[in-house]
Amino acid sequence: MTVEKKIFVKTYGCQMNVYDSERMVSAMKPSGYVETKSAEDADLILLNTCHIREKAAEKIYSELGRMKSLKANKPDLKIGVAGCVAQAEGKEIMVRQPAVDLVVGPQSYHRLPTMMKTVNKGKRALDTEFPEEDKFDHLPKDLTKRSSPTAFLTVQEGCDKFCAFCVVPYTRGVEVSRSPEKIIDEANSLVDRGVVEINLLGQNVNAYSQNGFGVKFNLSKLIWKLSEIDGLKRIRFTTSHPNDMTEDLIEAHGSCSKLMPYLHLPVQSGSDSILKKMNRKHTADDYRKIIEKFRKVRPDLLLSGDFIVGFPGETDKDFLETLQLVKDIKYGQSYSFKYSSRPGTPAANREEVCESLKKDRLAELQLLLSKQQMDIQKSMIGKEVKVLFEKPGRLNNQMGGKSEYLHAVHVIGSSLKKGDIKSVKIINTEANSLGGVLI
């Protein structure tokens, strides 16, 4: 009889890492592992890391220090590092932290069971190669019931854009798209297990391009194919690049009823000079024109964006141009950061803007973005939205979920259950959520 073992995965960073963590757990199930939410209970701890933000590696080393103390009390505990920090600094992790038993990159985690056999023989395992085989072909199918009515589904990985600030091309590799047949098969499996909303993932998801079902697929064609699945009610996608935005994908927002009116489209800066230094290969007006097209076919579209302030060479004029673009576009959600140098990227050795100026600019930008977000949330009061309910709220009989615009919404309704999609009238707004009543 196989003794049950427990795996704990701590996930950092983007939605793709959330998806990858789920697949890592699935990969270890045939080896007798079940997921636990407690590191203290685990026989195997995996840190699935992100390398995008400043001091990402140091945060992982700090976490490994805490995990090391668990290993002191439980000698058979195995500790692994996965994801983008693993890819970038695999050998260094092995040297700096002897408590780590294995290091695996984001394209090799299908090899975890084999690596664990090595570890269980008393050896350490390192795999940060970019394998020729498709990891998705080697991962077991997960047939367990889903705990959430929403799910991520990776359709594209890697990046060929080489933005001057970004490590993704070096940690995730070149752009690769999964076959439509495999994506549809996985989507059908998710729906069979209780999922009604799928969020398609990719580093540049709208760069999706692959042959399947006898024809050439782009992201728009894939969305239309997914929309044919009975039981799948909602489709989203993230993250897009302006340079890969196609006319048919824009049109799909106006004509595909299952594609939600929400778009995350990073711009990073409103200054053409800075965009050029970033190697973004689009201008601020290019971006404005794309948004104009989207809002023409879907006037109620809620827009989200990414911004970096204090990129090397950014002047006061450049920053003011970013503020102007934000005022022109009006964002319902946003993510904004101070520039932080990432080793190995083209911008890493450029002279940086002073830290205090970065801090001041970020505060000013975030104040504007927060006001826009709150103004849009206030504008929802009195309107009817469709909410997909996902989990109980803080109060008795309260359920929380997401509107088609990705707003968090909570209502009182004792008969509501996960997976329900109900009409809700919005009656109030809080800092990051809306309150409503069932219609």
Description:
By secondary structure, this protein is α/β, with parallel strands linked by helices. The protein has 4 domains: 5-127, Methylthiotransferase, N-terminal domain (Rossmann fold), CATH 3.40.50; 145-260, Transcription Regulator spoIIAA (2-Layer Sandwich), CATH 3.30.750.210; 285-379, 2-Layer Sandwich (Transcription Regulator spoIIAA), CATH 3.30.750.200; 384-438, Beta Barrel (OB fold (Dihydrolipoamide Acetyltransferase, E2P)). 34% of the residues lie in helices and 24% in strands. The protein is built from 13 helices and 21 strands. The protein has helices at 15-28, 56-73, 84-96, 112-120, 135-138, 168-171, 180-192, 219-226, 247-255, 272-277, 284-297, 316-329, 355-379; strands at 5-11, 33-35, 44-49, 78-83, 102-104, 125-127, 150-154, 156-157, 176-177, 197-201, 209-212, 215-218, 234-238, 262-264, 302-309, 333-338, 384-392, 398-403, 408-412, 421-429, 434-438. The strands form 6 sheets. The protein has a 6-stranded parallel sheet with strand order 2-1-3-4-5-6, sandwiched between helices. The protein has a 5-stranded mixed beta barrel with strand order 17-18-19-21-20. α1 (15-28) links the parallel β1 (5-11) and β2. α8 (219-226) packs parallel to α9, α9 packs parallel to α11 (284-297) and α12 (316-329) runs parallel beside α13. The N and C termini lie far apart (53 Å). The mean pLDDT is 94.
